Amino acid sequence: MKKIFTLLFFIKICTCVNAQEYLHINGATQGTTFHISYQDQKERDFTKNILQILDDFDASVSTYNPASIISRVNQNQTVVKLDSYFIACFEQAKIIWEVTQGAFDPTVYPLVNAWGFGPERKNIIEQQKIDSLLAFVGFDKIDIVNGKIQKKDPRVQLDFNAFAQGYAVDVLANFLLKKEVKNFIVEIGGEVYAHGKAENGKWRVGIEQPVENKTTKNELQIIVELEDVAVATSGNYRRFKEIDGKKIVHHLDPKTGKPTANNLLSASVFSAHAIQSDALATGFLVLGLEKSKEFLIQHPEIQVFFIYSDDQGKYQVYVSDQLLEWIAQEQ
């Protein structure tokens, strides 16, 4: 699976006094990298288990795997058995779609491809093409009925890439919790869940400055201390393309079919689950700063760190109240 967002987190992993008590697993998955550190009194090595989980996950919801469940659903194959990964992603996506009033919508997949951000690489899209695709974009046009996909239009297609890495983080975190691992951090492509304690108290995660950059890491904007919290960041400054000298960002507005055009540059979302943080980060970039702030009034359990540009083009930040207490004073 290839990650739609390529914003990276800098993670400072604090090991305990006895370094042997912490095990580290690193590798490649879903078009990006993953890093897991955990403290296990039995010093068990879960590498094989974790790699198998990631392989199974990819076989379920990767649009870059033509044999995956989601690819077969998009191809309208008649006999497709849905697994727990697909169903969980679908159901959680439906919830986020509803609460964001359609700003987050995984049926934008045809538009993602048309704009050249999916497996099919294209550069030019005309308004007539956008209008034709919008006719079958909308999460109300697809559902799961009696364990099977039901579409109102066979052209409806799904794209879980905007939040699947977040759910993969949750799946691995739940695996470690079931193994009674109390202190760990899981990171896939910048989406993070931190549980328990690190050596100096809490895990520390850095959020980058929103500088246009496709290849290297940026300077850190802030470092946040986490405990039993998931965080995901989405931004428009790493994954973009230029057409006729105009910057085209990869976040698409499901209502207009066009790339978003607002002053919100980066959205970092903190919640109890990485899939929720991941999906909301995408939704907020579509909603824009002011509508996102209105959403947060109704959902005080969600904490955010927004970076946006003001009328003079200067970077500004919006930080929710509780998150202020999590920002590390010493970096």
Straight-line N-to-C gap: 33 Å
Strands, total number: 15
Shape: globular
Weakly predicted, low-confidence segments: 1-19, 238-249
Per DSSP, the total helix count is 9
Write down the overall mean pLDDT: 84
Largest sheet: 8 strands, antiparallel
Strand ordering within the main sheet: 2-3-6-7-10-13-14-15
Task: Note the topology.
Layout: E1 10-12, E2 22-29, E3 32-39, H1 47-61, H2 69-74, H3 84-99, H4 109-114, H5 127-134, E4 142-145, E5 148-151, H6 164-178, E6 183-188, E7 191-195, E8 203-208, E9 220-226, E10 229-235, E11 240-243, E12 246-249, E13 264-271, H7 274-287, H8 289-298, E14 303-309, E15 315-319, H9 321-324
Antiparallel strand pairs: 1-8, 2-3, 3-6, 4-5, 6-7, 7-10, 8-9, 10-13, 11-12, 13-14, 14-15
Helix pairs in contact: 1-6, 3-7, 6-7, 7-8
Can you describe what's shown?
The chain is of the alpha+beta class and 331 residues long. 28% of the residues lie in helices and 26% in strands. It has nine helices and 15 strands. The protein has helices spanning 47-61, 69-74, 84-99, 109-114, 127-134, 164-178, 274-287, 289-298, 321-324, and strands at 10-12, 22-29, 32-39, 142-145, 148-151, 183-188, 191-195, 203-208, 220-226, 229-235, 240-243, 246-249, 264-271, 303-309, 315-319. The strands form four sheets. The protein has an eight-stranded antiparallel beta sheet. A three-stranded antiparallel beta sheet has the order 1-8-9, with no helix packed on it. Strands 4-5 form a two-stranded antiparallel sheet. The longest helix has 16 residues, at 84-99. It is globular. The chain starts with 9 loop residues before the first strand and ends in a 7-residue tail after the last helix. Mean pLDDT is 84; it is low at 1-19 and 238-249.
